[in-house]
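Limitations
The structure tokens in this dataset are predictions for the assembled complex, not deposited experimental models. Users should treat interface geometry with appropriate caution, especially where small molecules or nucleic acid strands are included. An illustrative entry is reproduced here so readers can see what is and is not provided.
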Amino acid sequence: MRRLTITDANFEAQFARIVNDRRESDAGVSRDVADILQKVRQSGDDALRDYTMRFDKHPLTADLTSWRIGKDQCKAAYDFLDKPVKAALEMAAERIRAYHAEQLPADRDYRDGDNVRLGARWSAVEAAGLYVPGGRASYPSTLLMNAIPAKVAGVERLAVVTPTPKGEMNALVLAAAHLVGVDEIWRVGGAQAIGALAYGTKRIKPVDVIVGPGNAWVAEAKRQLYGVVGIDMVAGPSEILVISDNKTDPDWIAADLLSQAEHDPASQSILITDDAGFASEVEDAIDLLGARIATRRTAHESWEKHGVIVIVDDLAEQAPPLANRLAAEHVELAVDDPESYFAKIRHAGSVFLGRHTPEAVGDYVAGPNHVLPTGRRARFASGLSVLDFMKRTSFISLDAEALKAIGPAAVALAEIEGLPAHAASVQVRL
Amino acid sequence: MRRLTITDANFEAQFARIVNDRRESDAGVSRDVADILQKVRQSGDDALRDYTMRFDKHPLTADLTSWRIGKDQCKAAYDFLDKPVKAALEMAAERIRAYHAEQLPADRDYRDGDNVRLGARWSAVEAAGLYVPGGRASYPSTLLMNAIPAKVAGVERLAVVTPTPKGEMNALVLAAAHLVGVDEIWRVGGAQAIGALAYGTKRIKPVDVIVGPGNAWVAEAKRQLYGVVGIDMVAGPSEILVISDNKTDPDWIAADLLSQAEHDPASQSILITDDAGFASEVEDAIDLLGARIATRRTAHESWEKHGVIVIVDDLAEQAPPLANRLAAEHVELAVDDPESYFAKIRHAGSVFLGRHTPEAVGDYVAGPNHVLPTGRRARFASGLSVLDFMKRTSFISLDAEALKAIGPAAVALAEIEGLPAHAASVQVRL
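Predicted assembly:
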């Protein structure tokens, strides 16, 4: 953990180092991924069979259940859930659905002063693919957050791919898949699964958009296939920035900082406060709570390696500009007047206003998406939304009169650009 | 040119081949581009100086004018324009601005039934970079179409990069840059210019989003930097699909088909009609007009290599499903009732309704963006818009009561996911 004070002589250099520190591993898997994608493109299901045996020790056989998890299995997993868990999942799904339904964009269709009819019409993609990691990072909440926007957008076919190492499945993910109505679940993972979704195989039909988190191989496969299909933003390790005065309970802030740290050793938790004593209380609380939780090893490693505490003089004045430079995935404003801080924050994935809004409610039940830009990408990127599963078709309609009004300008421009057929296509109609 | 008839025994196979025919060259420049980007990242302006001398034969010296084109030069180019051209450019800019202003997204801020305050706030990126190719593909209309959405979005700094081979500049592009208020123009091109915009150098500050067309090196550089910055969609050769009955003047349709063909030998023009005789008249008209225009070599090569005519039995029934499979960049509906066709077309970049709406009006003056998805990407991608220069920050605000309502569900889900600090961050506040 590093502790910086804004009055330090070398504060600017230290803070700049934190801003520029990319915690993402460039694993150098680019060539291997390219090979895998090419094999899947050429050999389809045969390539999937080979890679799945090699990487997941799972045999894909003539028996279709070795390839696909059935809807009945998902329903059974859902029925088997404890009542409170089922209720919690349902509340989460319902709230996520409600928030995303309000994102649906409006079509446009209007006539302007020249009697030119213009507009834009939104429509959903036909098919979307969702990667669900195996092992520890396989979360039912991730399935809800990725699948529900697709369903709300109107995607007809939602295919999940997920590795089942040695045949093992995650019952909670299957239950969530049942809840949101996933159409297909394929037992393949890694770059090969992304290749199958993009190019299609005999068994797996191609999709138009691929979303969902994954390891370095999955991320690289998505990057390489960007343009063949649509993909969501490149995702790096999770981050939280907490801006707190000394009136919040230090235990609360400690839990918030640890809630990011426990995700991954590469996660980053940052506290900005104006009270060095309060900062020390938070540190102590982190040590106490951090020692007690089952995720302590990961949380400890993340906090030690990447944790930061910044002490400023004037919180309201100095914290927002620092926050904008960090452009963090999550920003908590644990202060009396969060609104005035929020007004000054331009770059952030999601903002949590006030002391009673821990980031974790956003991970599960608040409604907004928890798939958010990391690694300072909030400067230019947004969280996942229904728009990631939709596209816009613009349209133009002119009658002879309207063409007379604006056509000659098009002819003039086509001529100076040296495109005579463009000019002719307007000219012949005038 | 290929001519297909829907009643042909092998029609499906032939049409599928056209759908799957990617006309994009995978130039295999990936390794070279990676090298260039790394050099620019390491050596900044020195690398730019070396590459610009090598590729553009343009010396970047201690004299700043060798690096930058000044605003005074742009103004001079603008003042020097012929009056009709100036008026045409101004009309185009004004109409593009008006259409894109209506795209500005609305913020959200509401309370739901549990008294949870939720919302989303849009903001512009701070800086955008725009690539303008040198040579033949350097068009003032491209500058307008890429720069105006950025300006409308509220981007503070808009930097253009453009190669000036042997020092040569395109006066029309400079004039357009003056018209829309470009902030900086740098005389660098190729992958090295994209690297400079993404990483920044001593002279060129980094940007958040890079847009604009370019050759294979530029496209690959953008692809490799996706995630470091935001980029617009990968672009391939242009396409037009014209759906026409036999009541449109064949000369009109011939000019429309040639207006795409003249862009590039790899462009594709497709006509779907229900009258074989009409199709032959269009073919003849293409031969006639095609022989007369200055772009005849390009247009001829494109039409011969990639042109397609499809004869169907029932235009209204059969053309829209074929159009959806092609998912073309531009779709013209030269029929009596374009509306009923449009209702059935789901995948298209932009649609031109009725006989008096040649695609070329959309290239210049109609208002909607002419940067549109190519190569069947209209299945999942949209044309350039203000949204490409903006991002959304979601927000959540709970008071103690609201946390009581939804917090326990978050705790339940955090516990089943094995994330105890997430659970604690809610629990300690309850």
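Some entries come with short summary sentences. For this one: Chain A touches chain B through 124 residues (CB under 8 Å).
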